[in-house]
Design goal:
Length: 380
Amino acid sequence: MRFTVDRDVFSEAVSFAVKLLPQRPTQPLLSGALIEAAENEITVSSFDYEVSARTSVTASVDEPGRALVSGRLLNEIANRLPQAPVQVSIEDGRIAVRCGSASFSLPSMPVEEYPTVPQIDSVSGLVPADTFAEAIAQVSVAASKDDVTPVITGVQFEVNENALSLTATDRYRVAVRGIDWENTANQPEMTALVPAKIVTEVGKTFSNNGTVQVSIIKNDDRELVAFTGGNKTVTSLLIKGNYPPVRRLFPESVDNYAVVNTADLIEATNRVGLVLEREAALRFSFREGTVTLEAAGSETAQASETIDVHLVGDETVVSLKPQFLLDGLRATHSEYARISFTKTDNPNKPGPVLITSQRSQDEASDDSFKYLLQPNLLLR
């Protein structure tokens, strides 16, 4: 194998391919980056039996071939090479990397023992990359970080006709966002439970690609999802299990709500929350024209602040964990947020709080983002 490639192109390709490599691979071989050179391009891949990343870039190939080398080491080298063409070759069983006056000789891993990287030959649907990335950013924050219950560490994809809905929950909040879906597989309904960390990385990587191809594959051999944008593809095994029916928790309509400037409430929550101990809640008292934030911390530290709101319906008092509220407010991606107050059978116990985006103080946004929040009430 011998090829020459642009320095920045090579660095970007290697960085993408190794980004999803596990920190502690089950086998040393799975820490490798697979380089394949053929005709006028090279392909750089990684695969750990669960997640794969693959990209192809143009190169001048003198000798086709394959090589496996430590992915993280290659990435560190590629990011620090001088601005000059990069020459990569196999010499005496080792990987030689030359760029300008810099040269490296890296040990080669046994490429013949490397697992076959998944090849995707079908497309389930297409989504606009920028909208898809925004939806992922809004929803994935609500996915659980606790591996004890793997099923809620994922983002649930639900395809229905020409719409894709994304849902995530950690039992204390639920986030939902729907976007347009161009169905290319003539399958009106599909579901896929995708690890949230993979979905998050996909959103960042493909946000500027125009269109993202999504492939949901479920057969006797494997259950996986693939995302392709431009010359890059990421695949992931699906999480197995039944996703909790959290969508039923959302009310059809709420008559009691407050509209608030999103940035003002975020700043006030951050300030008043300074005196709180970890896991403590803030008290929010909504009255016509104002909401008062109150916190009682340790060692008699206290704080309060009042900001303007527009209240529709009854005066309401709720206690919310600041970080959960902040996540929901930031995910609205709008100047104003609507905070709706649901009811329970017990008049002394408020129901979950619903946060949605608001185009202006008087006009709701036309997106379908919804964020339901109330500790200890969800999934009972």
